Amino acid sequence: MDSIRLAFYNFAPKTNDWTRILLIPWQATFWGVDQQDGFGTSMGPLLIGLSPLALIGWKNFSRDQRNVIILMTTIMVTTFLTWAISSQFRGLLTQTRLFLATFPAWAFLCAAGFSAISKVSAFNIRFWNIAGALVIFVLGSTAFTTINQDISTGTFSAVLQLESRQTFLENNLGEYERAAQGINVLPDGSHVLMLWEPREFACLPKCDGDEIIDCWYHDWRQSQNIDKLIGTWRAKGYTHVLLFKTGADFVQKYDALMFNPTDWQALSSLQTRLKLVENFGGTYYLYDLQ
């Protein structure tokens, strides 16, 4: 982790969006979409919907219960402030998954809110029924979504052995699975450096993934010369390079703030300079470094 890598990893423009800072729990709940940019996951409405209701039953809670609620609230307020402020300095810190360690505290507040609203009744209406129906609806919707996703991805078919494991992997991993298998059939002693591809499963120990998607940025800036770069990779024991071309194209088009035209010209020169071993559907390109 040198200065080049730190500069790349810590760089992010400030948005100065105070609305985003103040409303981050709401946004993470309702704007989060699984496997998409931004928060990167959807949480559902129960946490943000039930946790504030803990205040309703404040008088009915014991002293010990109140102390725990205060503690959990402090943890979550600190989490939200850290989450909101850090997201203004680094886009990656917007992702919900990075703060899941404190979510048990949020779940506790959610349970306290459910307990409080369950004891309230007005106009002959027992709110326990409404709260229970809400929880059942949300959990039922989550279960339906999960089952539907498992069906669409072929998970059940694979578990029940109605389709082969290889077919399941190819259907869900696409060209990555073909590229990984292409690496596996390379001669013994081969060692592949992957560019813009962090995933290593299915090809270990023959491959090294681009863990934080900065390998090209880092190594090119260290060398500033194609032949020197190739020599550096060879000295590290690499015999091949796997370029995730679709990933590189995406970064160039949508997330190229840290790059300049020279970086992309050098990448094209590298492709011309190396011998192509195999093209996997125009998505992955395997090159020989020797």
Describe the structure.
This protein has 290 residues and is of the alpha/beta class. The chain has two domains: 10-153, no CATH class; 169-288, no CATH class. The chain is 55% helix and 9% strand. The protein has 14 helices and seven strands. Strands 4-3-5-7-6 form a five-stranded mixed beta sheet, with helices on both faces. A hairpin with a 3-residue loop joins β6 and β7 (284-288). The longest helix has 27 residues, at 127-153. The mean pLDDT is 86.
Secondary-structure blueprint:
Elements: H1 3-10, H2 18-22, H3 24-30, H4 46-50, H5 63-87, H6 103-118, E1 121-122, E2 125-126, H7 127-153, H8 155-159, H9 165-173, H10 175-184, E3 192-195, E4 207-208, H11 215-223, H12 226-235, E5 240-244, H13 245-254, H14 261-273, E6 275-280, E7 284-288
Parallel strand pairs: 3-4, 3-5
Antiparallel strand pairs: 1-2, 5-7, 6-7
Helix pairs in contact: 5-6, 6-7, 11-12
Q: In what order do the strands lie side by side in the largest sheet?
A: 4-3-5-7-6
Helix % is 40-55%
Work out the strand percent.
5-15%
Alpha-beta content class: alpha/beta
Number of strands: 7
Q: Measured on Cα atoms, how large is the radius of gyration?
A: 25 Å
Please give the alpha-carbon distance between the first and last residues.
27 Å
| Form type | elongated
Quickly count the helices: 14
Overall pLDDT, averaged? Answer: 86
H/E order of the elements? Answer: HHHHHHEEHHHHEEHHEHHEE
